Amino acid sequence: MPPRFDAIVIGSGITGGFAAKELTELGLRVLVLEAGGPVDPARDYVEHVQPWEQPFRGWGDRARLEREQPIQMECYACDEWSGKFFVNDLENPYTTPDDKPFSWIRGRQVGGRSITWGRQVYRWSDLDFEANARDGHGVDWPIRYRDIAPWYDHVERFIGVSGKAEGLDQLPDGQFLPPMEFNCAESHVREKLLQAFSGERVLTIGRCAILTADHNGRAACHYCGTCERGCLTLSYFSSLNATLPAAAKTGRLTLRPWSVVESILYDPPSRRATGVRVIDANTREVLEFKARIVFLCASTLESTRILLNSRSRDFADGLANSSGVLGRYLMDHHMGHGARGTIPGYEDHATYGSRPNGIYLVRFRNVKDQHPDFLRGYAFQGGAWRSGWDRGQEMTGFGAAFKQSLLREQGPWQMSLYGFGEMLPSAENYAELDPEVKDKWGIPALRIHCAYGDNEKAQWKDAIATATEMLEAAGAKEIKPTDNDVTPGLVIHEMGTARMGRDPKTSVLNGWNQAWDVPNLFLTDGACMASTANQNPSITYMALTARACHHAVELMKRREL
Amino acid sequence: MHRRDLLRLLGASALIPFVPDEAGAAVQFGQAAHRAVRAGSLRALSAEEARVVTVVADMIIPATDTPGAADVDVTGFIDHLLADWYAADDRQKLQAGIGRLVAEGFADLSEDQRIARLTALDRAKGEPGSPEAAVAKLKSLTVYGYFTSERVMKEVTRDPIIPGKFEGCVRF
Questions:
Q1: Size of interface A-B (CB pairs under 8 A)
Q2: Which among B16, B60, B115 is the nearest to A232, CB-wise?
């Protein structure tokens, strides 16, 4: 009896949702397995719920958070409204060596972290794809910009991306909806920097997966500012808001939540994955589902964890791991270094509405010249703002005049430049199965070994210096460095552990995200990445996913899979 | 937020597939918690401590042509946080500082005396457990509790939940 499904997609987050959409639209019957529960937008989207409607006025239930989500609460986006979209740390443990802390921030529900993501989208260029080959860290990417460019177009046209074309080689322009506005201080800083640095340092508006015009049946953003809490108007992109509905519309999608994938089933004679073993999250029943192809999109570390746990006689160290590099070359971006200051002027002006987007100061290091102290580069996010009533919490004064000041005035314009940079791939950063610890469903937890190295530390130092000099050039006062020690993982751009490459001896996946060892197994989430670049990675994951889906279906049509 | 309110504010009916009819369980719990507090059931502060807190909060944000902190039960909000949110030693330190204000009879001073005393406390820094530190914390909690209260958000600041647009540089 033929299997009910042509394809199984493991995970319903940003890449799983895209795989579901592409594969169903290409005619396949697709089963999406999601470890967590369903999300009901009518009940769970709370972006318009006001602080006075919340039990703790927005402060969150501290005792419960510290007990059940002590790691997740490190994330800025895990608050009283959106905390439910983050995992229970007690049910989903992991371990690290004492001297190498790692903050693994996760969702586990239909939609995954695409519900709470930062929505920033930046294309890679060949400066990024060629980096490993150029300086020898990591293995050469098996693709270049020309291979992925049409897929960036494809993804952007579907999801809707707002941004401003800048014509910079190191940050290719995309298919943009109108950009969001700068505020007064940001416009001022942009112009000053263009003058002071001869156009080499470009402050642009954030490129974001938020609609500034109605698009494909979703409404333009109305600037309530709280995307992580949900979005009833479907204005920002998530798999819940866009790709899963598109897949459902084909009639070929089956979505099974509460499905914890324990392992991928492998048939040695045919060298093929035959399906997936699932533990039902609620009943603990063990089920098996069969399909012709499997797309692994469970998120970087979860996908690798599944492969490590899919052991067999042929693959004693994890499925698709003949190279031995499965689990290795774990990376995250680094962040937390830059500067902030006060921008004089524009006291009579303010903003209207809550912009769910910041600025982006494009990478300028190691673009034309080689910096003596470090390889590769970093960019800045951030923006400018004026404090409203909240400044009263730390202000001296009280009484009628104090109250009037909070009601009628705002603080000065302040500007922050907050660096995000590339982490070099290193075999010393890796994930393995913990020999003892298991999760709530009896599946081995991960033991994660990850620490920033000298190149990252040199970038931190430079980011503080350049942010400071740029704010000075813009006329800012009271400039203070931002110098935060941030644990790896907290940027929530963890990548690697099942990298793409040109050689099956040193990589897990080929240039089509296809496992060298198991041709009907594709992996398209962050685990596939051979390097990190400095750009927010989700749009690159989505483009790789769409490209891999089309290739997989092409192979199926040719009866190769 | 009811469906018809949302639709009216957004002005377009076709593109909103999911609209809650009710705010949901979290909102109901929040509203119940606030009702209980308003009903006068203090759980952390003693009556004397609550009185001092109310006096201080009202001095920080008095009623003018708009409500003051006392009008929106900032004391109830602070009591709720002390009972349900603060960790034990932070709660103990803040209540110790409030206790010092009770002990010095702050609430029974004349208006001029209170203003002079609060001015001095407001300008100084103090160790946790001191009245200076308590005043600093009460300032922060009063401002937060006032500006996130239902009445102030709906009647005074009235920031639109659905602005509808973003403008980066508009005259004040």
A1: 182
A2: B16
pTM value is 0.95
Three-state DSSP class for residue A365:
coil
Q: Where are the alpha helices (DSSP H) in A371-529?
A: 400-408, 454-473
Given a contact cutoff of 8 angstroms between Cβ atoms, the answer to whether A523 and A296 are in contact is yes
Q: Which of A159, A113, A145 is nearest to A18 (CA)?
A: A159
Over residues A239-288, the pLDDT tens digits come to 999 999 999 999 999 999 999 999 999 999 999 999 999 999 999 999 99
Q: Does A389 touch chain B (CB under 8 A)?
A: yes
Nearest residue to A223 (alpha-carbon basis) of A211, A214, A241: A211
Taking Cα atoms as reference points, which of A377, A305, A299 lies closest to residue A533? A377
Q: Searching chain B, which residue's CA lies closest to the CA of residue A182?
A: B168
Beta bridge partners of A426: none
Residue of chain A nearest B24, judged by CA positions: A43
CA-CA-CA-CA dihedral for B160, B161, B167, B170, to nearest 10: 30
Question: Does residue B5 sit at the A interface (CB-CB below 8 Å)?
Answer: no
Taking the C-alpha atoms of residue A49 and residue A226, their distance in angstroms, rounded to an integer, is 10
A74-132 pLDDT, tens digit each: 999 999 999 999 999 999 999 999 999 999 999 999 999 999 999 999 999 999 999 99
Q: Does B13 touch chain A (CB under 8 A)?
A: no
* Secondary structure of A479-518 as H, E, C letters: EEEEECCCCCCCCCCCECCCCECCCCCCCCECCCCEECCC
d(CA A260, CA A36): 8
Per-window interface: A 457-516 vs B, CB < 8 A: none
- Say if A218 is an interface residue toward chain B (CB within 8 Å): yes
* pLDDT above 80 for A497: yes
Q: How many CB atoms sit inside 10 A of residue A453's CB?
A: 13
Tokens of A212: 């500034």
- In terms of CA atoms, which chain A residue is nearest residue B150? A52
> Could you give the 3-state DSSP secondary structure of residue A372?
coil
Q: What stretch of H or E contains A477?
A: strand A477-483
CB of B144 closer than 8 Å to CB of A57: yes
CA gap A311, A432 in Å, rounded: 13
Look up the ipTM and state it.
0.93
d(CA B1, CA A44): 13
CA distance A191 to A203: 9
Residues 6+ positions from A454 with CB-CB distance below 8 Å: none
> What are the residue ranges spanned by the domains of chain A?
1-39+104-160+237-333+490-561
Q: 3-state DSSP helix/strand/coil percent for chain A, to nearest 5?
A: 25, 20, 50
The owner of tokens 């009770």 is B102
Give the separation between CA A70 and CA A93, rounded to whole angstroms: 11
Query: Class of the A1-39+104-160+237-333+490-561 domain?
Result: alpha beta
* A389/B81 CB distance under 8 A: no
**Buried-state track A137-171, b at ≥16 Cβ within 10 A, e below 16:** bbbbbbbebebbbebbebbbebbbbbbbeeebebb
User: Do A42 and B123 make contact, defined as CB atoms within 8 angstroms?
Assistant: no
CA–CA dist B144, A371 (Å, integer): 46
Cβ-in-10-Å burial (0-12, 13-18, 19+) of B17 comes to middle
Contact yes or no for B64 and A396 at CB 8 A: no
